[in-house]
Automatic annotation (TrEMBL):
Protein's name according to its UniProt entry: Carbohydrate acetyl esterase/feruloyl esterase
Species of provenance: Leuconostoc suionicum
Positions of transmembrane segments: none
Pfam families membership: Esterase (PF00756)
Biological classification of the source: Bacteria, Bacillati, Bacillota, Bacilli, Lactobacillales
UniProt-listed PANTHER family: DIACYLGLYCEROL ACYLTRANSFERASE_MYCOLYLTRANSFERASE AG85A, ENTEROCHELIN ESTERASE-RELATED
Amino acid sequence: MAFLEVNYYSKVLGMDRVMNVILPELSDHNPTWTTETLKDIPVLYLLHGMSGDHAIWQRRTSIERLVRQTPVAIVMPSTDLAWYTNTTYGLNYFDALARELPEKVASLFPQISTKREKNFVAGLSMGGYGAFKLALGTNQFSYAASLSGALVGNPRQEDFLKMEKLSYWQGIFGDFDSFAGSKNDILALAKTCDKRPKLYAWIGEQDFLKPINDVAISTLQQLNYDITYETAPGTHEWYYWNKQIERVLEWLPINYVQEERLS
Protein backbone atom coordinates (compact mmCIF):
# COMPACT_ATOMS: atom_id res chain seq x y z
CA MET A 1 0.00 0.00 0.00
CA ALA A 2 1.10 3.53 -0.74
CA PHE A 3 0.16 6.38 1.58
CA LEU A 4 -0.11 9.82 -0.01
CA GLU A 5 -0.87 13.30 1.23
CA VAL A 6 -2.43 15.12 -1.73
CA ASN A 7 -2.57 18.90 -1.92
CA TYR A 8 -5.03 20.13 -4.50
CA TYR A 9 -7.06 23.20 -5.40
CA SER A 10 -10.84 23.26 -4.95
CA LYS A 11 -12.62 25.52 -7.41
CA VAL A 12 -15.84 25.09 -5.45
CA LEU A 13 -14.31 26.37 -2.21
CA GLY A 14 -11.79 28.69 -3.83
CA MET A 15 -8.90 27.41 -1.72
CA ASP A 16 -6.20 24.79 -1.46
CA ARG A 17 -7.25 21.55 0.22
CA VAL A 18 -5.59 18.36 1.47
CA MET A 19 -6.67 14.73 1.39
CA ASN A 20 -4.88 11.60 2.55
CA VAL A 21 -5.07 8.58 0.28
CA ILE A 22 -4.23 4.93 0.92
CA LEU A 23 -3.63 3.39 -2.50
CA PRO A 24 -3.01 -0.27 -3.43
CA GLU A 25 0.22 -0.85 -5.32
CA LEU A 26 2.21 -3.74 -6.74
CA SER A 27 4.71 -4.93 -4.12
CA ASP A 28 6.25 -7.99 -2.51
CA HIS A 29 3.69 -7.68 0.30
CA ASN A 30 0.94 -8.66 -2.16
CA PRO A 31 2.51 -11.20 -4.53
CA THR A 32 -0.84 -12.29 -6.00
CA TRP A 33 -1.82 -8.80 -7.11
CA THR A 34 -1.38 -7.97 -10.80
CA THR A 35 -1.89 -4.91 -12.94
CA GLU A 36 -5.38 -6.28 -13.64
CA THR A 37 -6.10 -6.49 -9.91
CA LEU A 38 -5.31 -2.82 -9.55
CA LYS A 39 -7.58 -1.59 -12.31
CA ASP A 40 -11.00 -0.20 -11.45
CA ILE A 41 -10.23 -0.32 -7.70
CA PRO A 42 -13.14 0.22 -5.30
CA VAL A 43 -12.86 3.28 -3.05
CA LEU A 44 -14.02 4.17 0.44
CA TYR A 45 -14.32 7.85 1.33
CA LEU A 46 -13.66 8.06 5.07
CA LEU A 47 -15.05 11.16 6.82
CA HIS A 48 -13.96 12.75 10.09
CA GLY A 49 -15.90 14.17 13.03
CA MET A 50 -16.01 17.67 14.53
CA SER A 51 -12.57 17.63 16.13
CA GLY A 52 -10.81 15.90 13.23
CA ASP A 53 -9.32 16.58 9.83
CA HIS A 54 -7.99 14.66 6.82
CA ALA A 55 -5.29 12.99 8.97
CA ILE A 56 -7.31 11.88 11.98
CA TRP A 57 -8.30 8.39 10.76
CA GLN A 58 -4.65 7.66 10.01
CA ARG A 59 -3.55 8.93 13.44
CA ARG A 60 -6.20 7.34 15.64
CA THR A 61 -7.03 4.01 13.97
CA SER A 62 -5.42 1.00 12.29
CA ILE A 63 -7.03 1.72 8.93
CA GLU A 64 -3.81 1.46 6.89
CA ARG A 65 -2.89 -1.89 8.46
CA LEU A 66 -6.43 -3.22 8.13
CA VAL A 67 -6.57 -2.74 4.34
CA ARG A 68 -2.97 -3.81 3.69
CA GLN A 69 -4.07 -7.03 1.97
CA THR A 70 -7.30 -5.75 0.39
CA PRO A 71 -7.29 -3.98 -3.00
CA VAL A 72 -9.35 -0.96 -1.94
CA ALA A 73 -8.45 2.73 -1.98
CA ILE A 74 -9.19 4.91 1.06
CA VAL A 75 -9.73 8.64 0.54
CA MET A 76 -9.73 10.83 3.66
CA PRO A 77 -10.76 14.46 2.99
CA SER A 78 -11.57 17.33 5.36
CA THR A 79 -14.70 19.42 5.76
CA ASP A 80 -13.20 21.51 8.57
CA LEU A 81 -16.15 22.26 10.91
CA ALA A 82 -18.69 22.67 8.12
CA TRP A 83 -20.76 19.50 8.61
CA TYR A 84 -20.46 18.41 4.95
CA THR A 85 -22.84 21.24 4.15
CA ASN A 86 -23.26 24.15 1.77
CA THR A 87 -23.03 26.69 4.56
CA THR A 88 -25.02 29.89 4.92
CA TYR A 89 -21.74 31.83 4.99
CA GLY A 90 -21.05 30.92 1.37
CA LEU A 91 -18.63 27.98 1.41
CA ASN A 92 -20.18 24.99 -0.36
CA TYR A 93 -18.53 22.06 1.38
CA PHE A 94 -21.22 19.60 0.34
CA ASP A 95 -20.67 20.32 -3.35
CA ALA A 96 -16.89 20.22 -2.86
CA LEU A 97 -16.94 16.78 -1.24
CA ALA A 98 -19.95 15.07 -2.83
CA ARG A 99 -19.29 16.16 -6.41
CA GLU A 100 -15.96 17.88 -6.95
CA LEU A 101 -13.81 15.51 -4.86
CA PRO A 102 -14.76 12.29 -6.73
CA GLU A 103 -13.97 14.08 -9.99
CA LYS A 104 -10.61 15.17 -8.58
CA VAL A 105 -9.84 11.63 -7.40
CA ALA A 106 -10.71 10.25 -10.85
CA SER A 107 -8.37 12.70 -12.57
CA LEU A 108 -5.45 12.08 -10.20
CA PHE A 109 -5.92 8.32 -9.77
CA PRO A 110 -7.38 6.78 -12.94
CA GLN A 111 -7.02 3.28 -11.45
CA ILE A 112 -9.71 4.13 -8.88
CA SER A 113 -13.20 3.19 -10.02
CA THR A 114 -15.80 5.82 -10.88
CA LYS A 115 -18.59 3.22 -10.86
CA ARG A 116 -21.30 3.79 -8.27
CA GLU A 117 -21.24 0.14 -7.22
CA LYS A 118 -17.57 0.54 -6.26
CA ASN A 119 -17.84 3.91 -4.49
CA PHE A 120 -18.53 3.84 -0.74
CA VAL A 121 -18.59 6.40 2.06
CA ALA A 122 -18.30 6.10 5.85
CA GLY A 123 -17.71 8.42 8.76
CA LEU A 124 -17.92 8.95 12.50
CA SER A 125 -20.04 11.41 14.49
CA MET A 126 -20.33 14.49 12.24
CA GLY A 127 -18.85 12.27 9.53
CA GLY A 128 -21.61 9.69 10.04
CA TYR A 129 -24.10 12.43 9.25
CA GLY A 130 -21.93 13.38 6.28
CA ALA A 131 -21.73 9.82 4.97
CA PHE A 132 -25.50 9.36 4.97
CA LYS A 133 -25.99 12.86 3.57
CA LEU A 134 -23.57 12.33 0.69
CA ALA A 135 -25.06 8.94 -0.16
CA LEU A 136 -28.70 10.00 0.11
CA GLY A 137 -28.19 13.40 -1.49
CA THR A 138 -26.38 12.15 -4.60
CA ASN A 139 -26.24 9.04 -6.75
CA GLN A 140 -22.48 8.73 -6.23
CA PHE A 141 -22.28 6.07 -3.50
CA SER A 142 -23.78 2.58 -3.29
CA TYR A 143 -22.91 1.90 0.38
CA ALA A 144 -22.80 4.30 3.33
CA ALA A 145 -21.81 3.63 6.94
CA SER A 146 -22.21 5.71 10.09
CA LEU A 147 -20.29 5.15 13.32
CA SER A 148 -21.82 7.06 16.25
CA GLY A 149 -23.33 9.37 13.66
CA ALA A 150 -25.18 12.59 14.31
CA LEU A 151 -28.09 11.29 12.28
CA VAL A 152 -30.24 14.36 12.75
CA GLY A 153 -33.58 14.81 11.06
CA ASN A 154 -35.28 17.55 13.05
CA PRO A 155 -32.63 18.73 15.53
CA ARG A 156 -33.55 20.14 18.91
CA GLN A 157 -31.84 23.48 19.33
CA GLU A 158 -31.08 22.85 23.00
CA ASP A 159 -29.16 19.67 22.17
CA PHE A 160 -26.95 21.43 19.66
CA LEU A 161 -26.30 24.36 22.00
CA LYS A 162 -24.58 21.89 24.33
CA MET A 163 -21.85 21.53 21.69
CA GLU A 164 -21.53 25.00 20.11
CA LYS A 165 -23.13 28.42 20.33
CA LEU A 166 -26.16 29.34 18.25
CA SER A 167 -24.27 31.60 15.82
CA TYR A 168 -22.08 28.65 14.79
CA TRP A 169 -25.07 26.46 13.93
CA GLN A 170 -26.82 29.30 12.11
CA GLY A 171 -23.68 29.77 10.04
CA ILE A 172 -23.77 26.13 9.01
CA PHE A 173 -27.47 25.34 8.64
CA GLY A 174 -29.39 28.59 9.02
CA ASP A 175 -32.36 28.74 11.36
CA PHE A 176 -33.28 25.51 13.15
CA ASP A 177 -36.93 26.07 12.31
CA SER A 178 -36.16 25.56 8.62
CA PHE A 179 -33.97 22.45 9.04
CA ALA A 180 -36.68 19.77 8.87
CA GLY A 181 -37.46 18.88 5.27
CA SER A 182 -34.47 20.82 3.91
CA LYS A 183 -31.51 19.51 1.90
CA ASN A 184 -29.65 19.15 5.22
CA ASP A 185 -32.25 16.77 6.67
CA ILE A 186 -31.03 13.25 5.91
CA LEU A 187 -34.45 11.76 6.58
CA ALA A 188 -36.02 14.13 4.04
CA LEU A 189 -33.29 13.17 1.56
CA ALA A 190 -34.07 9.50 2.18
CA LYS A 191 -37.65 10.03 1.01
CA THR A 192 -36.58 11.46 -2.36
CA CYS A 193 -33.39 9.48 -3.03
CA ASP A 194 -33.32 8.13 -6.59
CA LYS A 195 -30.84 5.27 -6.16
CA ARG A 196 -30.99 3.89 -2.65
CA PRO A 197 -27.63 3.01 -1.08
CA LYS A 198 -27.23 0.17 1.35
CA LEU A 199 -26.76 1.58 4.85
CA TYR A 200 -24.95 0.53 8.01
CA ALA A 201 -25.01 2.23 11.42
CA TRP A 202 -23.33 1.42 14.71
CA ILE A 203 -23.52 3.30 17.99
CA GLY A 204 -22.50 2.65 21.58
CA GLU A 205 -25.29 2.07 24.06
CA GLN A 206 -23.92 4.81 26.35
CA ASP A 207 -23.40 7.31 23.52
CA PHE A 208 -25.29 10.61 23.90
CA LEU A 209 -26.32 10.33 20.24
CA LYS A 210 -28.04 6.96 20.61
CA PRO A 211 -31.59 8.39 20.99
CA ILE A 212 -31.40 10.25 17.68
CA ASN A 213 -29.89 7.17 16.03
CA ASP A 214 -32.81 5.05 17.23
CA VAL A 215 -35.27 7.54 15.73
CA ALA A 216 -33.38 7.91 12.44
CA ILE A 217 -32.89 4.19 11.93
CA SER A 218 -36.55 3.49 12.71
CA THR A 219 -37.58 6.03 10.07
CA LEU A 220 -35.21 4.55 7.48
CA GLN A 221 -36.54 1.06 8.24
CA GLN A 222 -40.10 2.32 7.75
CA LEU A 223 -38.97 3.68 4.37
CA ASN A 224 -37.80 0.13 3.53
CA TYR A 225 -34.10 0.92 3.27
CA ASP A 226 -31.65 -1.96 3.33
CA ILE A 227 -30.03 -0.95 6.62
CA THR A 228 -28.01 -2.84 9.20
CA TYR A 229 -28.18 -1.32 12.69
CA GLU A 230 -25.87 -2.60 15.42
CA THR A 231 -25.26 -1.45 18.98
CA ALA A 232 -22.94 -2.56 21.76
CA PRO A 233 -21.67 -1.19 25.04
CA GLY A 234 -19.65 1.93 24.30
CA THR A 235 -19.32 5.68 24.37
CA HIS A 236 -18.40 8.42 21.89
CA GLU A 237 -14.68 7.79 21.48
CA TRP A 238 -11.95 6.45 19.23
CA TYR A 239 -11.47 3.16 21.08
CA TYR A 240 -14.80 1.99 19.65
CA TRP A 241 -14.43 3.56 16.20
CA ASN A 242 -11.08 1.86 15.73
CA LYS A 243 -12.78 -1.48 16.41
CA GLN A 244 -15.90 -0.79 14.35
CA ILE A 245 -14.17 0.40 11.19
CA GLU A 246 -13.12 -3.21 10.64
CA ARG A 247 -16.77 -4.23 10.88
CA VAL A 248 -17.51 -1.69 8.15
CA LEU A 249 -14.77 -3.18 5.95
CA GLU A 250 -16.29 -6.64 6.46
CA TRP A 251 -19.72 -5.30 5.49
CA LEU A 252 -18.58 -3.63 2.28
CA PRO A 253 -18.43 -5.67 -0.97
CA ILE A 254 -14.63 -5.46 -1.25
CA ASN A 255 -13.44 -9.03 -0.49
CA TYR A 256 -11.86 -7.78 2.71
CA VAL A 257 -8.86 -9.87 3.82
CA GLN A 258 -8.19 -9.83 7.56
CA GLU A 259 -4.50 -9.67 8.30
CA GLU A 260 -4.60 -12.32 11.04
CA ARG A 261 -5.79 -14.90 8.52
CA LEU A 262 -2.56 -14.66 6.56
CA SER A 263 0.41 -16.97 7.10
